[in-house]
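Duplicate of earlier report; Nudix hydrolase domain-containing protein input re-posted below.
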Amino acid sequence: MACGFCSLRRPTLTSLFSSHSLALTPNPHCRSSSLRISRALSATTLPITSSSSSSSFFTWDDVFEIGRKESASPQNGSSDLTGFLEKIDHCNRGSEKLAEFIPFVIEEQIVGYIHKGFTEYLREFHDTFTFSKNGCVGGDYVTLSLMFEKPVDRTRAVADVIRILGDKGIIPGIRNELYPVKPSFNAPAVFSLERAAAPYFGLKGYGVHMNGYVERDGQKSLWIGKRSLTKSTYPGMLDHLVAGGLPHGISCGDNLVKECEEEAGISKVIADRAIAVGAVSYMDIDQCCFKRDVLFCYDLKLPEDFVPINQDGEVESFKLIPVAQVANVIRETSFFKANCSLVIIDLLFRHGFIRPESSGYLDLYRSLRNGDCS
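Output:
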């Protein structure tokens, strides 16, 4: 508001980005593996496109037919977790292409990673962007001109660049929504950037995803949305009842309440009952885009007679589906928007739908936090 090759023992990207600060003078004690990435530079360039947009043509009848396959139901004790692992794998592609990105540094901290092919566009704006070699990075990095000392000045200067690149179609889907640029969640923002540009700068991104469920006769069911076919990203795909990115200047809780109202018509009185249950993370490289996202997960038990009503036109319809059937759909299809699968798989662990007896249980659990949760 998703299929890749599955490996039970895939290498994690977390260790590659374990630190985000650097000194711009030589430091023999610097051991951050996130900085060592920049030392292995590749000459390969990629097209400046993103595959974030896709169309899915399936019906709710298709969803229910696949969901009812008992042979795949976690509650029936199936030990095959391969389908879940594939969905997580799809959110963590491209680790072999890390050397094609160089650090984006602001105030002596790494705040992102930019593909070398994309930097060719930024070099045209030499009054805004600076390319340097120095210190702990041990290679090229991108920064902003020192003339932009304050966050508001950086925001304005970079916005002018993004506007031009958007007009040229280099950065599609401009939303006029600002995301904070910072090295970690609790750090102050060094400036703000247009949301559509965030993957091109490899920023840390944050969002809130809520599992809205109903419990009847001991059975839990999830309210699932089907995205509008007019959405610029993932049109027609399945989605959470409520989910959204975390813009600049709003807390997770306040953002969740706002999204509850806009996406499902949930009042603040009910939305305030949502329980924060943790986070999942992933790192995904798709051509020149590098997503380093952390999703804060919430559960909300809804009244049995609750029926969601979309308010912003971004959801085509909603259906209430038993959790076990939702699990089957995730495992057997690519109907869900990719990162939603991670949040629902996390719910399957917490609510006992995936059990320790299943082969690959711990591998699957660890994979849900494959990115840098900072």
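The longest helix spans residues 151-167.

Merging into the original ticket.
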